[in-house]
Amino acid sequence: xxxxxxxxxxxxxxxxxxxxxxxxxxxxxxxxxxxxxxxxxxxxxxxxxxxxxxxxxxxxxxxxxxxxxxxxxxxxxxxxxxxxxxxxxxxxxxxxxxxxxxxxxxxxxxxxxxxxxxxxxxxxxxxxxxxxxxxxxxxxxxxxxxxxxxxxxxxxxxxxxxxxxxxxxxxxxxxxxxxxxxxxxxxxxxxxxxxxxxxxxxxxxxxxxxxxxxxxxxxxxxxxxxxxxxxxxxxxxxxxxxxxxxxxxxxxxxxxxxxxxxxxxxxxxxxxxxxxxxxxxxxxxxxxxxxxxxxxxxxxxxxxxxxxxxxxxxxxxxxxxxxxxxxxxxxxxxxxxxxxxxxxxxxxxxxxxxxxxxxxx
Amino acid sequence: xxxxxxxxxxxxxxxxxxxxxxxxxxxxxxxxxxxxxxxxxxxxxxxxxxxxxxxxxxxxxxxxxxxxxxxxxxxxxxxxxxxxxxxxxxxxxxxxxxxxxxxxxxxxxxxxxxxxxxxxxxxxxxxx
Lengths: 361, 128
Prior knowledge:
The complex is a heterodimer of chains A (361) and B (128). Chain A is an alpha+beta fold. Chain A contains eight helices and 19 strands. Chain B has a single domain, classed as CATH 2.40.50.100. Chain B has helices at residues 28-34, 88-91, 116-127, and strands at residues 7-8, 13-18, 21-26, 37-41, 48-49, 54-60, 64-68, 73-78, 100-104. Chain B is built from three helices and nine strands. Chain B has a six-stranded antiparallel β-sheet with strand order 1-2-3-9-8-5. In chain B, strands 4-6-7 form a three-stranded antiparallel β-sheet, with no helix packed on it.
């Protein structure tokens, strides 16, 4: 298993580890609920160095990223970030990712850890624009600071930069505690927060600069356990759970990230036709009506009929009941009453709007 | 924290004997490993349990864990406060967080379980 440059830092905090996408990552340091609530009320510090970073340079960079993206990368100006999907020719989702525009001839793609090689190959195989592609995942560490106190913590560490003026989905190149950092106002928690990209050599320095400030602000280091419950409450999908190569963006409830007017991209024709024909499966958010926990793979029924499956599910620390996403038939959406089979018994649930919680973002 | 007066299973359930009645729960070590218990599913009064077979489930934020009966017998009482306050298992695994009382068919089954010292050794071996 691969380890991030912060593995020793996690070990010294007595983290429990888990395997994720080929990486040995901290699952939790104290308790998933404590870490989750810290992000909602104060601040949490995350090591996300397993994520992949692909840099695309050169004259053809813009055309290549546009051609691969369902969302309109052409709307980006320098210093902005865009959430997009890459789709295959059949409209299935290759990955979901963030596109950072440094300049017209320089983009950074931030991709899921389990998909780094798949995405690099995908980008390379479709590179007919002469762009230069560099996989800098190994050399790049990513530390996230998420929660209402994240701005106060960063402010004194980022001299001469007005940290609070970086708006949502924008980034700057600056310094945090003297360390060259790409400071991005993004996150996967629903809270105000930052994602900080540094060279792998500087990962420990940045972690140790932030950690005491986080503890002083009554925050916590946060593992992948709480990252999952945080993103669920915020209504954010996870690749490999809520979508894969055989799911199209409409089926994953990500249709608003498909911009087909006046532009071409891989999978467009199939997606336009699929939308015209009508989408047979839809992704919904659900909330359990008793205390039972619905998890990924469980079967969903409505009036005794099998209508789909849970794709992600967990207890919500904020709502004190279980929540999740399920992929169900489109007809079943007309009625918000559903049942989820848990160990042979049907438990009542209802379809609800996502995000499940209103947060500081 | 491993009370001397209890008997333990390798799967971390404990049994406390009072005559032919056994109260059962999970150990402090088990609750600290599982953490954040949010759901407990227990059998109804009157259910017949067989030693070392599943009788219920507890769930943490992260995962579900099966519970195994330390002894055979009939369920005569269930901790009715657990469904609404499952965190008692984390806070008080040997007292408020108990699961069931069982009328044992054969109290001698307890002899096959671990005593406190053997359970301590078992935990250390599992943790190593």
